[in-house]
Write a structure and sequence with these properties.
two-stranded antiparallel sheet; 5-stranded mixed barrel; alpha+beta; 3 domains; OB fold (Dihydrolipoamide Acetyltransferase, E2P)
Length: 206
C-alpha cells in the first residue's frame, strides 16, 4: 500500500459536502478525530478546519485499505477517496450528519503519538498543558473559528480600502525599549554612539 498522497487532490473541505453530492466520488484530507472499529465495519470521523465528515469501511472494502483504516489513530493525518452516500443512521449534531464517504482508497500521510488531551475537549484542560501544546490546541473548533473570524474581518477591511483606492504599506519601526516582556532585539545607532533602538514587540504594541 502506497501511503503517499501522490495522485490525490482534495475535492473540497469536509464540511462543504451535503446531500447534493451523493453519488459523487470525492477526495478528502484531514485529521482522524475518532476511529470506531466494529469488526466488519470501521467508521472514522475525519476533521479539517471546516468540520467533520464520516468515513465508512465495510466488508466490501479492499482488505489492504480496511487494514490501514484499522491502524488509524487519533490525530493521524490521512487522505481518503470514496463515494458520498446517504447515512442510514444520521447525526443531527454536525452539518454533514446526513452523509458519509464509502472509502475505496485510504492513505496515512503522517502518524501521530497519542495526544496529551482530546482536541475537542481542550477547553477542559489546564492552561499549562494547552499552552505547552498550543499547536494542538489550535485545532479545537472554537479556536479555529476565532482564527477564521479574524481572517474574515481583516479580509473585509482590506477589500474595503482596496475598493476605495487605498494602498497598504509596511513601514519599518524603531521604538523605545520596554522593561517587560521578551528580551529585546537591539539595533545600535549609527549616529549616537552607545545608543540602541529596539525592534517592536508586536503583542505589546498592538
Amino acid at each position: 500500500m502506497n501511503n503517499s498522497i501522490k495522485g490525490m487532490k482534495r475535492t473540497d473541505y469536509c464540511a462543504r459536502f451535503n446531500m447534493e453530492n451523493v453519488g459523487q466520488t470525492v477526495t478528502v484530507f484531514g485529521w482522524v478525530q475518532r476511529q470506531r472499529d466494529l469488526g466488519n465495519l470501521i467508521f472514522i470521523d475525519l476533521r479539517d478546519r471546516t468540520g467533520i465528515i464520516q468515513l465508512s469501511f465495510n466488508d466490501k472494502t479492499d482488505r489492504d485499505v480496511f487494514a490501514l483504516a484499522q491502524s488509524a489513530r487519533s490525530e493521524y493525518v490521512v487522505a481518503a477517496t470514496g463515494v458520498v452516500a446517504e447515512r442510514e443512521s444520521k447525526n443531527k449534531d454536525i452539518p454533514t450528519g446526513d452523509i458519509e464517504v464509502i472509502v475505496s482508497d485510504f492513505r496515512i500521510v503522517s502518524k501521530a503519538k497519542t495526544p496529551p488531551f482530546e482536541i475537542e475537549k481542550s477547553e477542559k484542560v489546564g492552561d499549562e498543558i494547552t499552552l505547552k501544546y498550543r499547536y494542538l490546541n489550535l485545532r479545537n473548533e472554537k479556536l479555529t473559528k476565532n482564527i477564521l473570524m479574524r481572517h474574515e474581518i481583516a479580509k473585509i477591511a482590506r477589500e474595503y480600502f482596496y475598493a476605495n483606492d487605498f494602498i497598504e504599506i509596511e513601514t519599518p519601526m524603531m521604538i523605545k525599549s520596554t522593561p517587560e516582556g521578551a528580551r529585546d532585539y537591539v539595533v545600535p545607532s549609527r549616529i549616537h554612539n552607545g545608543k540602541f533602538y529596539a525592534l517592536p514587540q508586536s503583542p505589546q504594541i498592538y
